[in-house]
Design brief:
alpha/beta; elongated; 14% strand; eight-stranded parallel β-sheet
């Protein structure tokens, strides 16, 4: 009898975790995000956070999106062109595609998202971002930010990287054996680094060269 009750309790607990949190129980901070989530749920007949595998909320003036940490089944998330300034998505371990471009981000946490393959973060206000654990990332667009330092060496699967129009003085690519394209134009990099880039075989690297010398 005790074993039966224990087994039943375990099953009920597992079922609850599998279904996630009912949307009616999510404590929304941003009404615009809530509207987008509810519209998506209605379209797909989703009732719980764990049913969401994709979410697209563009140009909706969203300022906060931390509630999305309850949506851990998300694989494709796009919050393009909103008003986000701070965001932590480290709980979304199933993400394969993430687009938070054209926001106002100055603080972003995405470490450990090992399944992530594409990342769009251009046109934000990021001075730095930790890419540790993003071992599956193949394509990243981080141009038009305020990056002063960046370590992309953890991105062992990276094939294409866009980092132009930042404040980077250095960007190491050692160990990135799958990298085929890199854009670092409009960064204050030394000529020695450009020379190193030019010596690399099998990689197209777009840079400003000795542009200052031409003036």
């Amino acid at each position: 009898m005790i074993r039966t009750i224990t087994a039943l309790s375990t099953l009920l607990c597992f079922t609850t975790l599998s279904w996630g949190k009912p949307l009616s129980e999510v404590e929304w901070v941003d009404q615009n995000l809530k509207n987008c989530v509810e519209k998506t749920a209605e379209k797909n007949n989703w009732q719980n956070s764990e049913e969401f595998t994709e979410l697209k909320c563009h140009k909706m003036k969203i300022k906060s999106a931390q509630e999305l940490n309850d949506f851990t089944s998300l694989e494709d998330l796009s919050l393009f062109s909103n008003q986000l300034t701070v965001l932590d998505l480290t709980a979304l371990s199933n993400l394969t595609s993430l687009n938070i471009a054209n926001n106002k981000l100055s603080d972003l946490k995405i470490t450990g998202l090992s399944k992530l393959q594409t990342l769009y973060l251009f046109r934000n206000k990021l001075e730095e971002v930790d890419l540790t654990g993003l071992k599956g990332l193949k394509k990243v667009r981080l141009m038009q930010n305020a990056l002063t330092k960046l370590d992309i060496t953890p991105l062992i699967s990276l094939e294409e990287g866009h980092f132009f129009d930042n404040q980077l003085e250095d960007l190491q690519i050692t160990g990135l054996e799958k990298l085929t394209f890199l854009d670092v134009k409009q960064n204050p990099m030394p000529d020695e680094l450009y020379d190193f880039y030019d010596e690399q075989d099998g990689i197209v690297i777009s840079h400003d060269g000795n542009a200052d010398d031409w003036q």
